[in-house]
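FAQ: What does the model actually see?

It sees only this:
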Amino acid sequence: MSLGSIIDSLREFDTALLANTIGYIDPTPAHEYYMGRTIQSVTPSLGPTVGVAVTCELDSSTPGGTADLEVYNQQLAQIEAMEEPAVWVVKTVGSRPNHECVMGDGMAKDLYSVGCIGAVTDGGVRDIIGMLTVPFAAYSCGITIHHCVLRFRAMNQPVEVGGITIQTGDVIHANAEGVIKIPQACLGELAGHAARMYAFEREAHHVFRQSDVSAASKRAQTLALLVKYGFAKS
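And it is asked to produce this:
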């Protein structure tokens, strides 16, 4: 199956379900693949967002200086050449972290036109209403009204955003509840396992709701369901 087909299949699932599934099928520690709560969706009606990460660093907060958009223009060309949808992952490196504003709806339209469907950043964004009309999804530390001159730095280097390391080529999955990267080793089989996880959770939640069943019985039933769906051994 092609990477594009895998990405299409993963759009059928919410991000939390995939995070749960990864925990059962892949040895990657959880703290290495889910972002912290500082990274929130500011376009929650647009999820899920699934695509291939393209990384860069940006200083949008340091006073003075002149704009440097060379890296940005190179990344537009890079994204345009990709076969899969891109997710722009931006690490902010300016001197005033609380004043970082990575993009607005103008840049969203520019990025979307070459195949980028969303951005993940530890800075702020603006023009949310305009982003929704593109549609372009954004996951950030919040909304920031303006920025200083934009100075793009390193591109396609590992960046730390939301407490995890993202590299160009990682597959990102995000929705209204947060952002994860999918470990490469389980990427091809994740959708099939996620379908079973969805079925397991539906049955398990029915068990959890029962007020006339003891906690011990619920634990036993849940374990039996994990075995039934292949997430535990009998």
